[in-house]
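May I ask for an example protein's residues together with how it folds?

___
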Amino acid sequence: MLSQDLKNNTDNETTSYEKIKREELTEVYIGIDDTDRFLFGCSTNFLREFISELLRSEVGREIFFGDYPYLTRLNPSIPFKTRGNGAVSLHLYTYEYVIDELAEIIRSLGSRIDLGEGAEPGIVILKGTRNSALLLLKEYFVRALSDIIYLEVAEKLIEKLGGRIVSRGRGIIGALASIAHHFVEHDCTYEILGYSLRNNDVYIDPERVYLMNKATYPLTFNNIDPETNKILIRPRLGRPVALGIRGEKPEILLKAVEILKPSGIDEYLIFKTNQATDQHLVPRRLSEAKPYRIGLFEVLIDKEPVVTRGGDLFIEVSDSFDKDVKARIAIYKEFGEAREIIKKLIRGDLVLIGGSVKPLSELEGSDKVIINVEMIKILQLSKKYIEKNPLCPRCGARMISRGSRKGFKCPKCGYIDPLGKKLIEEIPRLGIEENIILKPPIRNMKHLSKPLQRYGKEKICRKKHNLINVSNFYIRQTDVYLKFKI
């Protein structure tokens, strides 16, 4: 039963390097991207099939896992991305003579899959890493998260690193980025995916979803949309992914599945991910805003928001360090109720915005750009003032103007003050405050966007120094586990 499998899965989590001859092993990274098929499959499923092939192969017992599989979400604004713009990778230890076998297994698997028109699968194998390569990989990873990378750039870096391209499509860009992800110390989350070839037979009791959410919150997230009560853990389209639960650590995901008790799911795979981390929001100056680039920009509000008939907001802003650098930001209706707070912004307010640059700005014949906003943090509110006529010193009534530079007259007692001036009065900024973070509803968030409940739960995730048993992340519903005996 799965309940027992889940219990077993938490036992013997890691195996010390000391139990094998480390000096005989070669460190290997395998990256995979763009293996989607129309309404079927994804790169995570391809990886699942590859792991299954490894377990059945003769070399299976000569392969050791250095970490959980990685699911790496990349720049969501790239127009030629796959559905979720996610690449996957494995960190392995094996013997040198096994690497050719690995390449052949994964090549054979790819040749058996009809990917359909438009797919450009990329599969990369990288052996070990030199210290001199770490900076190159980290820089590449940041670019893959927040900028454009061209195919030839990925090819040259793979060659420089001594890597092997098993499948040479556009997907090698993401495949290498997922490998690079292993060398970045950053916040991370985990996701357990359930797979089934019989999606119509999969049943997840809605009541158990609410029970699971209550029992695991806030260590799992994005299970249910709190505004609509819509369940978000069941993918809408495609097979074989039938379930996806995200959380802070693998153990809480196993607990969530145990509470759900879904039927019809064949296998589970747990990934370490950069989802829900805001990792793509790289700090930049407004002058660095280029089409398809994503950034975190500190800006000043130049003009109050303009509201379109459909409810979208457009605001003119300038760089907080260089007021000559201008841009327009867009907050679309999908941002939800938070727009009501954003409407209260005024000239001089200092805000931090995270978002992607809209490429159509190039066609406007202007040096301005349009940034599609997915996050706003209000850093500093400027003071808001209102002018009022002075009060009558004789009776206290509000006076009225006698005309330009003619002073004021009291409409009640007739007192005239030829030297009177308007009063400047500060008014409170109701309904808006400093240091609040505004985001769209979770149903409209991108994979990388960090939900508000994750603030304060960030952690630094580093490469493991122990081997991890495959049964910690690859779980079969009905079969007895095939475990590596290390």
Remarks:
- Residues 1-279+448-486 form a domain with the Alpha-Beta Plaits fold (CATH 3.30.70.2200).
- Residues 1-18, 479-486 have pLDDT under 50 and may be disordered.
